[in-house]
Amino acid sequence: MPAVFPADSVGLVSPQRLAFQQPLALACGRQLDSYELVIETYGQLNSQASNAVLICHALSGHHHAAGYHSVDERKPGWWDSCIGPGKPIDTNKFFVVSLNNLGGCNGSTGPSSLNPATGKPYGADFPVITVEDWVNSQARLADHLGIHQWAAVVGGSLGGMQALQWSISYPERLRHCVCIASAPKLSAQNIAFNEVARQAILSDPDYHEGRFQELGTIPKRGLMLARMVGHITYLSDDAMGEKFGRERKSATHNYDLHSVEFQVESYLRYQGEEFSGRFDANTYLLMTKALDYFDPAAAHEGDLARTLSVAQADFCVLSFTTDWRFSPARSQEIVNALMAAKKNVCYLDIDAPQGHDAFLLPIPRYLQAFSAYMQRIEV
Question: H or E stretch including 329?
Fold first, then answer.
């Protein structure tokens, strides 16, 4: 009996692994002589190759953005609420490309891949990757797929930084840039959160200076703590209060310093446990460093408007009222710089109680605004 998926789902999808043999020079001064990228595509590329949309993922994201890998998969891709027939990124109209970035741990070349020079996993020897490096590798991906110009490059959080970098590095290769819940650079507080997460991993005795894979260990405790710290910052105080309040797992206090008594404690431990079983510790370090290093205006003495003056795309910038990790003020910096550079930009700050994670959720006002913008894009 054929599988039955929702009418607005892209249905069954299969990842593709693409090999690139041309060396890729990196901002850190090193290069990858060859590498692989894992991607998924949804919809059909038109004869003019003018309807392609690139999806850039956030810190813990990957190529599986929509649909299902099997009839038994319980949860669809991470952005299924926004990608599919009739959804904001409408696969009846667009050819959508989603990838796992270099340095990732979901199939693309990264720290858990074998280093051809040693025959062992790269581990901590994998080169540091920047947002600009990712965009350069994505441009090669576009060449491979026969896409000279993206109809739009879209991303949330760290993905929004990549979309913004696309408009600077390859201004003629995208017509629209959609930057959601993002920032032109991290604040000192954000860098501090990332450093706490990294230290949780680095101080785990099972990390072994990044060689844990060779030794058959996993820095599980460090990964759990890193994820717990991060997850707290992705939710607003109101969202956590509404979801958990001060509910306890039992009616009485245990008066035990080591027990899990509150529902929020149980939730964070579950999130940490689940994350530590599927994510690579060295990838986490790489991704947070890429976040920290992102500052395209540094090349122009901090002048973001001057940096964005080369852009040719139209822009859509979205933020969320209770997002304190990437606050609306940071999106407004981007908008103000674009206006100063005389670029076409629309901006909406969406009233949503869910915090930073709101960009992943099917919030009606958000989906309505996102859809309205994407419907304007001519293919």
Answer: helix 328-340
Does this model's pTM top 0.70? My answer is yes
**Cα separation, 87 vs 90, whole angstroms:** 5
Query: Tokens at residue 145, please?
Result: 């797929």
Which of the following is catalytic: 9, 137, 157, 327? 157
DSSP state of 85: T
Q: What is the rounded average pLDDT for all residues in the chain?
A: 93
Q: Is there a catalytic annotation at residue 182? A: no
Q: Is 157 a catalytic residue?
A: yes
Contact residues for 282 (Cβ-Cβ < 8 A; gap 6+): 110, 111, 112, 122, 123, 124, 126, 210
> What pLDDT, in 10s, does the model give residues 225-247?
999 888 888 888 887 777 776 66
By DSSP bridging, strand 176-180 and strand 152-156 are parallel
Q: Which of 212, 328, 228 is nearest to 280 (CA)?
A: 212
Give the residue ranges of DSSP H helices in 101-157.
Answer: 131-145
Partner residues linked to 317 by β-bridges: 179, 347
